[in-house]
Design goal:
Keywords: Membrane, Transmembrane, Transmembrane helix. The chain is mainly α. It has one domain. Helices cover 92% and strands 0% of the residues. The protein contains two helices and no strands. The chain is rod-shaped, with a radius of gyration of 34 Å.
């Protein structure tokens, strides 16, 4: 059997193999940036949610401190 007969029996040519590899590479090139961006968006939104929770806590603490300061000022004025 010659090389040509083996290729014809198999039905897979080098050109078909190269096209398949190129299409797989193209699919990867199109999906990898999307996956990367999705991950970055997830982490950024998670960080924003954390910072928002911290902001709310600090605002509540600020209100408590203002109320205590007002109590102290009222007590000082009553003396």
């Amino acid at each position: 059997m010659s090389k040509e007969n083996m290729v014809e029996e198999n039905g897979v040519t080098l050109g078909m193999l190269l096209i398949t590899i190129m299409l797989a590479a193209l699919a990867l090139l199109l999906t990898i940036p999307n996956i990367y961006l999705d991950n970055q968006i997830y982490y950024e939104s998670s960080e924003l949610a954390h910072l928002n929770r911290v902001k709310i806590i600090l605002e509540e603490e600020q209100d408590i401190i203002k109320a205590r300061l007002e109590e102290i000022n009222v007590k000082e004025n009553l003396r």
